[in-house]
Amino acid sequence: MSVFPSPFQAFLLSIVGPMFALLVFQAVSEWLDPTAALGVGMTLGLGGVCAAVTRLVPQPHTERLGLRGFPAKFWVPILFLVPITLVASEVDNWANLLAPPPDAAEIEERVTERLPHDTPLAIAESLIVAVGLAPVIEEWLFRGIIQQGAIARFGVGWGILFTAALFGVGHVGPGVSAAAWLASISVATLYGFMLGILRQNTRSLLAPIALHMGINASAVLGMVFAEPVPIAGFNAPGDHTPSAYLFPAAISVLIGWWLVSRWALPPVEIPEEEPTQDTP
Q1: Whether the predicted model's global pTM rises above the 0.90 cut
Q2: N or C, which terminus of the chain has less Cβ within 10 Å?
Q3: d(CA 190, CA 195)
Q4: 52 in a domain, yes or no?
Q5: Is residue 18 part of a domain?
Q6: How many domains would you assign to the chain?
């Protein structure tokens, strides 16, 4: 038996999972506010797809999906890696500069509607969805299920890149311009690559979940503190992020990457594959 999923199955998952989440979101948005509807969509839609697919992944799930803790020392590089949010914002700035998306204002309005930050309750709700739900469900699918199959087929480097690219594709919603599509894929792929390296070197799914939470928290808090702490090109208008913020962020990310690579744990011994269901 081959390790699930195959590259084609992984591609379908990266498309079908988010689309199913969007369908659930649209179905419940009539009764719930956009943030709550987004949370339900992710939980029932994307989470439901993950739960169904996990049953097809060969046992043991602890080793294959990375359902284990990681050494406490890895919290150091995780913290160093969180400023990748600023680096990614500059990638987005360059993408928007090279191919300006005509629907940029509409996309920003959509994000603000689904993750509002105008009241303490709205901030709390946005943090619950963006920090509490999204990282767990997305990492479960991409770094827990898809990446382990991709690495088994393509090797570590290409497997991580393949999964990162699918992570980028999975973050593009319908109804956006080609320019916005390319910008979104560029940013999400950068995140996916670093999350994939962390998952591989810690042998734990919890490590990329922690980093993903930090990334999303910094993005939400960036919106919250846009007025008192405006950073051009990040949470305030501007073509580029100032070097006073960008260079320290890039150095921090490089240190985090170096530490994760230096402290990489050895591969986990995985027993011979066994199906989770009886086979004829």
Answers
A1: yes
A2: C
A3: 9
A4: yes
A5: yes
A6: 1
